[in-house]
């Protein structure tokens, strides 16, 4: 079991001593994990540190936390969109997914706009689960909905047993790509998450 509070102090000090992107990523993640779970501070740190602009991953985390935890506007998503000609296909799929999330909480947004963003995210054809799941959730055609769910399930990279999850250490959790893959893209899941998200496809043994 990780001592997140001790790691938070460790990574805060590491970033103060050496202001690199990696140290900032670790510091931000230490603010996100329970029992700290200070999403507001994690977002504020990303916004404050100019070096975060060198990390599309950190900017993506800011947007994700804004839309799913704080229910506020993201300051980093517009920056990511302006950088679109420099981003990888993987990151562009992320940008369109995050843009879709920005509309979910807006009562004035139409399903057509959300569908458009999710369809653009899906069009990049990279390992991604959440975009297919959210697209299926607003799909009215039952056959198409089932196709989207099947594709989402197929895109899962790894389903970790609870016993295996307990062996994961600091190295795993303090890698921002792993955080994005498990929390945002949902391509890495534990068996409980898989059974909840895909009850017709996966059952915990």
Overview of this structure, please?
64% of the residues lie in helices and 3% in strands. The chain is mostly helical and 205 residues long. It has a two-stranded parallel ribbon. The mean pLDDT is 94.
Shape: globular
- Along the chain, the helix and strand elements come as HHHHHHHHHEHHHEH
| E-strand count | 2
Tell me the strand percentage band: under 5%
Q: What is the oligomeric state here?
A: single chain
Question: How widely separated are the two ends?
Answer: 24 Å
What distinguishing features does this structure have?
single chain, 205 residues, mainly alpha, two-stranded parallel ribbon, 13 helices, 2 strands
Describe the protein's topology.
Elements: H1 4-17, H2 21-32, H3 39-48, H4 56-70, H5 77-82, H6 89-104, H7 111-123, H8 130-137, H9 142-154, E1 158-160, H10 162-165, H11 170-173, H12 176-184, E2 188-190, H13 191-197
Parallel strand pairs: 1-2
Helix pairs in contact: 1-2, 2-3, 3-4, 4-6, 4-12, 6-7, 7-8, 8-9
